[in-house]
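HOLO CASE FILE
Compound: S-adenosylmethionine
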Amino acid sequence: MSAPIGYDLIVQQLIPGYASLARLAVALLAASPLAGRQGAAVLVAGCGTGAELVEARAQRPDWRLTAIDPSAEMLAAARQRLGAEGISWRQSSVEDLQADGCFAGALSVLVLQSLPDDGTKLAFLAALARSLEPGGQLVLVDLMAPERSALQRQVGEAWLGFQRASGLEADPEVLEPLTQGLYPIGEARLNSLVNAAGFSDPAKIFQALGYEGFLLQRTP
Ligand SMILES: C[S@@+](CC[C@H](N)C(=O)[O-])C[C@H]1O[C@@H](n2cnc3c(N)ncnc32)[C@H](O)[C@@H]1O
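Model generated. Tokens follow.
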């Protein structure tokens, strides 16, 4: 994904609670037993334009941050926002990172949703689990597939209403990469994938319409 002009504004108009996602994700990881330690090594997987990095710097200036993204454009936008110093920048997917057991904690915000469920999601999650110390935690935030429920249609309409109320009038070319080619899964499938990847059951911490945040722990 390239960094479209206006990405940061558009995601706020499109994604309910986006402005709080990174803040919540960092606060949650900072309260974890391993990543809570002074100077902990933390991986920001799929850093995009750097929202989680801005929050991590503000809340935990002691963290040793590694920021990765396969997109050169996204990484460049994040580096411009944060400056090159004090963060280890890597243009890489999580799967290609080769950093087994290096991190006390990791953040993955709005990344899994863009990977197809044909082995690619599992490979991504397994690589994240491998990158963590045993007992290390991952905060995963993603668009989830709606469970079959009488409210499903209402939630879909509410999301459109949220976008209208936020004044979303983005150029379709800019909007399309953010709304097309997504592969959300339901909670049962997420459970089975994360267990197969080496995590214990995900604990749901927050939700805004279809966007949900989970805490996962690498099994020892
Ligand atoms: C929708 S953006 C989210 C960026 C940021 N986390 C945020 O919340 O604004 C998804 C990012 O994940 C990156 N990405 C896609 N596949 C990835 C993978 N396998 N490993 C790491 N990052 C990946 C994309 O390049 C893109 O920058």
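CASE NOTES: The first strand starts at residue 41 and ends at 45. The mean pLDDT is 93.
CLOSED: yes
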